[in-house]
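Researcher: Re-running this chain for the archive, since the previous output was lost when a drive failed. Same request as before.
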Amino acid sequence: MLPKISIGIFIIGLLSQNLQGQDIILTVQGPIPASELGTTLIHEHILVDFIGADQTGYHRWDKKKVMQKVLPYLQEAQKLGVKSIFECTPAFLGRDPMLLYELSLKTGIRIITNTGYYGARDNQHLPPHAFAETAAQLAERWTEEFKNGIEDTDVRPGFIKIGVNSDSLSEMHAKLVRAAALCHLKTGLSIACHTGPALPLFQEIEILKSEGVSPEALIWVHAQAEKDLQKHVQAAQKGVWISLDGLGYNSTQQHFEMIKNLKNHQLLHKVLISHDAGWYRPGEENGGQFTPYTAIFTELIPLMKENGFTEEEIQQLLVLNPQKAFTVKIRSLKN
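Model: Regenerated structure tokens:
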């Protein structure tokens, strides 16, 4: 178990680095300068447990067995140049901060975990208190993880992960978005929202703005589910980060066309790419089928180079954009 440190020491450490002019990323091992993030996969999973909020827990998996299964895939990604991975499994869906900490130590890969709740899949991964509490109360829970660590560890979240259904926002899902906005204003953590099609995305933007949060704080997760490419352009022009993160599933050509479209609109600086790959599945034999974190490097990048993308543009997608999207920084409409 990690030793606890006081919030005062932690925040002073963050401020001292920021005063030196360095943007900060919060990894499971602590804060690092954003410039050290390196080649980054911004949406991946180590373990996901779909059994539901009422049944999931650490009793569902053996950390040693998970590590044995996952390590070769992380090492494979590392050989391809990956330095950092944002692990997007939320609480009550299989988030395990100590597992991520141990994997980070073992591999040297910087791993970033999250706070927040996942309302997609019709709320089956929300704890009972999520329905009873206000947005402000939920935001305070998530802020406490940022201040004091997740559960009894010193692992702190490096971003906010929420999830909504793909249709018009329900009252519950609107509350999750509002809670994320309030948490962002207290912590500076970016908001990655599992969204899919554009309909809820533009509703999310309006909720953030109503709380004084800039769309620059929002990452549109699974934007590849929206086939109207003009919606990608509209969202990016508002400041939203466009996350095309399903590259582990035979979608290379589709992702390429979406990236090219945003490049043609001079919006490559707002694009994030990843695989949404993995993951160990508790309850399945040996964790089930695991999708590797490789398609970007073995399929997408060669296709991009064949079609005129430069090394600088590829670096923009995999190095510079993740640094800017996930820097701990309050992005308010007043800024």
